[in-house]
Amino acid sequence: MKPDISVYNVLKCLPFWSMFFGWAIAQGTKMLCVLYYSGKLDFSYIVSTGGMPSAHSAMVTALATSVGMVLGFASVEFTMSLAFALVVMFDASTVRRAAGQQARLLNEIVDELFKEHHLSERKLKELLGHTRMEVFMGLLMGLVTGIMVTSLGTLISEQASLRLR
User: Fold this and answer.
1) Which of 31-45, 49-63, 113-127, 131-145 has the lowest mean pLDDT?
2) How far apart, in whole angstroms, are the C-alpha atoms of residue 132 and residue 48?
């Protein structure tokens, strides 16, 4: 059996929308936090990495939650999406965070060397990973988003099928 990979089928896939809104709400929250603390609206935060909350965590948690709700929490697909979510969140709070801390230290070393020698002024990106709290808040945001989007999508789908009868 050949799978139907039409755009229409992707657009009616609840886990896709849960994942998308989990990411979008988390990134929007980052942008609003920066606006609150700095008084400046910075749209670069829509595609930034690092910071509160973790958009990666929100996205993968919303995906796993929605897959569990749609296909069942005992399904292979849920198990795979849960494993994927755990790897992403572990990576965000360990490997990527360590890379950000190393970038910060290297930037300090370059600043010190720049005082005595002419070196490139290009800085490494320091905001790469997340604290455990940022990952946890992303997880909570993704859980709520996944439940809300999947529940709302299921309700809309049921209402539409009742009207067609």
Assistant:
1) 113-127
2) 18
